[in-house]
Every structure is written in C-alpha cells, then in structure tokens.
Amino acid sequence: MTAPTRRERLRTATLAEIKAGARRLLVTGGIDAVSLRAIARDMGMTAPAIYRYFPSLEALVAALAADLFDELRLGLEAARDAAGGEPVDQLLAMCRAFRAWSVAHPAEFGLIFGAPTPGLATFVDDCVDPDHPGARLGAVFLAPMIDLWHRSPFPTPPVELIRERLGDRLEPLRLSHGDIPIEVTYTFLAGWTRLYGLIAAEVFQQLTWAVTEPEALFELELGALAGQLGGVDRPDGTAR
Amino acid sequence: MTAPTRRERLRTATLAEIKAGARRLLVTGGIDAVSLRAIARDMGMTAPAIYRYFPSLEALVAALAADLFDELRLGLEAARDAAGGEPVDQLLAMCRAFRAWSVAHPAEFGLIFGAPTPGLATFVDDCVDPDHPGARLGAVFLAPMIDLWHRSPFPTPPVELIRERLGDRLEPLRLSHGDIPIEVTYTFLAGWTRLYGLIAAEVFQQLTWAVTEPEALFELELGALAGQLGGVDRPDGTAR
DNA sequence: TCATTTGAGTGAACGCCGTTAACTATCGCA
DNA sequence: TGCGATAGTTAACGGCGTTCACTCAAATGA
Predict the structure, then answer these.
(1) In angstroms, rounded to a whole number, what is the distance separating the alpha carbons of residues B152 and A201?
(2) A240: closest CA among A93, A77, A100?
(3) Are residues A21 and A123 in the same domain?
(4) Nucleic strand D near CB of residue B48 (< 7 Å)
C-alpha cells in the first residue's frame, strides 16, 4: 500500500469533480440535464476530456448511482448506530432516515430507485453479485430484523404458507445473504416493499392529489409496522 | 353536435398516429427514444409538422401519459365489473389487474408512476383538479372500499389517532372526492401505497437481488391485505 | 365559379447533445 | 536528456428540439 503518486492524486480529484458536477446538474435540472458537455463546461474543460475518466456518459451516471447508494447506506448505518441497541428502534430510525434522505434528495432517489434506464440496466442486471448496491442496502435492514427475530420472534403468516409460496424463489437473496429464517425473509420483503411504496409515492408525487404532508401518513404506517414487529405495546400502535 | 368535417377526421387520425408512434418508441427504446424526428420519420413526415398537433415534445408525452392513465383505468374498471358484486372481490381483482398491466407495460408504468420529469411537472401539479388522472384512478379503488365499509366495517387504528395525525392533511382528497369516513381514507391510503410499492418495486427491478417471480410475493401480500379488510376468514390469510 | 383564407407540411438553420479521431503538450521516470 | 504515458485540445459526424420562411392543397364565401 504505497502512497498515491501526484498523478494519481490529481486523477482522483478530477474524477470526484466530474461526479460532483454531474450530481449538481442532476439536482438542478433532472437526469436529462446531466451531459458531458455541461459538466466539462462547468469545469472549464471540453467534453472529450471526460472520456479519459469514464468510457461513456452512461458509465458516469452508473458510477454516480453507486456513490449515491453508498451515501444512503452510510446514512442509514449512522442512524442505526445512533438509535441504541434495540433492533426495533434501529429499524424505525433507519426507516425515518431513509425517508428523510429521499425527500431531501428526490432527483438522486429517482436515479437509484426509479425506472431503470435501458442503458443503465447493466447496473442492475448483475443481481447475483452479493456486492450489488441493492443487496448491500437490504442487508442494513435485514441484520437488525434477524437480530430482533432471535430476541423475540414476531408474528408472521404460517411458515408452511410462506415456504410454499416463496420458498423456491428466494435464491438471489440466499446467494447474497445466506440462509435466513423464512419468516424473517417474508417480513423483510413485505416491510421493504411497504417502505419503498410509501417513500416512492411521496417522492414521485403520487400522493399530491390525496394528501398534503405525506410524512403524517408515513409516521402512521411506521407505527403500524412497529406494532406488527411487536416492538411497541401501546394500544394505539404508535411508534416511539 | 355536428358531424366532423373531413379535415377534422384527418386531423384526429394523424393525432392518433403520432401518439401511437410515440408509444411504440417508448416501449421499444425507453422514454429517451421518444423523439419528434423519430416519430415523424416513422410516419413519412418531417419533425416540424408535429408542431401542428402538439406545441412541444413535452406536451406530446403529457398527452400520451393521459391516454395511458385512461387505458389503465378502463382496464381496472373492466376487471372490477367482471369480479361480481362483492367489494373485496372487486378490490382484489383490480389489484391483480393493476399489477398485470404494469408488468406487461413497464415503460408505460414508468412514465406515469415514475419520477416526474421536471418539465412534465405541470402534468402532475394541478393536483387540486378532481379530474386529475391520479384522482380518477384512485376513485376506482376508493368506491368499492367505501362500499365495503358500509356493508361491514373493517378494523382500523383508533379513529382519534387517525384524525389527529391525518385530519388536516386530507384537503386534496376531500376536494376531489368529498367527505369520506376517515378510517376508510386511512385504509385506502395505506393500501394504495402498499400496492404501489409492490408493483413499482417489481417493475423498477428493485427486487431482483432478493426474489425471482415477485408475483408470489404480490399474492402473499394481497392475501394479507384481504385478511385486513376482513374479506376472508381463512386462518392462513390466503386470498380467494 | 373564382378569389381568398386557412391549415398541413417542407427545408434550412441554430444551438444543443454523445462520441470518435487526430493531434499536442506536459508530467514522470529511466 | 530523452521517451513513453497521460491529459487535454480541436474538428467533425449524426441526432436532437425548435423556429422561421415558404409552398401547396383544401375549405370557404361572395
């Protein structure tokens, strides 16, 4: 592990500046505003120079997406670590942190959780890879849920039903995370899609016709989720 | 209501052909492949001619989105009408039809349920309009749920809690659909975001790292939803 | 019937875009 | 000191949305 040469330092700095410019354009003008020429212009460069750093615009966007996944995951881990040792508290803190990041960064959320660009499909296609960003993010939620299950099992549908319906179809998850109690797997997937639906609906403005301040709905649903995980005994299902 | 003139007939035909071409490009190449020049090329025309029909590409895409909303809504209504008179059966049939359409038309789903294009925001911004496509679609689910509530109320969180958390924030929904029992409102919103999350996660390929055949998960969750609506008394929560 | 107005479509142009190719200058190292 | 690798340039190609001036056929009205 030798020290980086001067060239390497300059290179990584330029690389970071390119991605920063791409993100700035993404935030201010949407994904369509992210163009090599605009990035280069902002840097006082010309567009073809960027090809020394990325083989194509698509690859640049994929790299940006990977960075965003990491940023989000680190944020969730920080929220988890600040939530104390109770798995339910950790899960709730992570759900709230997930929503907060998403609402604060709608363009970034759209890039990594929205409709996959036909060209960006390569980024999502290697789903068997355990280092797939989605899998790494899922793991952050999965671990406390497994922890909780071992401390105090939460109610689920009958295991035979889950196994019959889902059993054969969990190969990707098994490949990336090993064997997990199938009740936990089901609860995780159900919770994940629910969380995803709440956040995506809000960020993608699919609730504007119905409700202002979707956070209120989010908190209500979080209470219901927490109730199902048995973490709270208040009769009204309120989250702590 | 006089008969359309020859000119009008030709105009509507050309208009439909433009939108059909746009949709074909959307399906085969994603939203980025929808270009005035490509549409015109397929029609044996030149791009500026399309400006006789739409003021901009963005307006064309917005019109296409409105058509897709209608197509989906009509499909859901057909599924409802084919499901018999039981509200729970109607709701389940509509949920399945929603998923089937979305999985069969991922590009179209992405257009109307994905991240709003900054330019397309005008399309979603007039959320107060009761004829907003989202509101019209929501109504299709809302009606059977109200019906069900009046026939046999389903369990919900305490009404005081819902009212406290959600009460003031339902103005948009009230404007488009009038007063609705707040328990129904909550159950509808919770169910809508859950359904949306399941379908969007599948269509946007956010589950590939975890599960093959997301339909199995969808059916499991549908069973849980039906169970919560009290429509099924089977102990395993299976949908009919 | 004939002149006129309207509407649909064309072609050229402008400024964006991604990408490639040929070229230049500088940095780091032997 | 010289040389190869590296980072940048300019020019060009084709594609894009959009505008403008123009043509030509169809509808309209006296």
Answers:
(1) 29
(2) A93
(3) no
(4) yes
* Facing A208 at nearest CB: one of B162, B172, B212: B172
Confidence of residue A225 (pLDDT cuts 50, 70, 90): very high
For residue A119, the one-letter residue type is: G
Q: Where are the alpha helices (DSSP H) in chain B?
A: 6-29, 36-43, 57-81, 87-104, 106-113, 121-125, 133-151, 159-166, 171-177, 182-203, 214-228
Give the residue from A137, A154, A193 with the most B CB atoms within 10 Å of its CB, the best one to mutate: A193
- pLDDT tens across B150-204, in order? 999 999 999 999 999 998 899 888 888 888 999 999 999 999 999 999 999 999 9
Residue B240 is assigned to a structural domain of this protein: no
Of B134, B194, B237, the CB nearest to A209: B134
CA A47 to chain centroid, in Å, comes to 31
Answer yes or no: is B233 within a domain.
Answer: no
* Helix, strand, or coil (residue B199): helix
What is the CATH classification number for the domain harbouring A1? 1.10.10
- Which B residues 46-85 have CB within 7 Å of strand C? 46, 48-49, 52-53
Closest approach of B203 to chain A, Cα-based (Å): 8
- Residue closest to B188 by CA, chosen among B117, B139, B131: B139
Higher pLDDT, A99 or A4: A99
Range of the domain at A76: 66-228
A102 shares a domain with A39: no
- Same domain (yes/no): B16, B126: no
Q: How many CB atoms lie within 10 A of CB B240?
A: 11
Reduced to 3 states (helix: H, G, I; strand: E, B; else coil), residue B162 is helix
Query: Does residue A239 register a pLDDT over 60?
Result: no
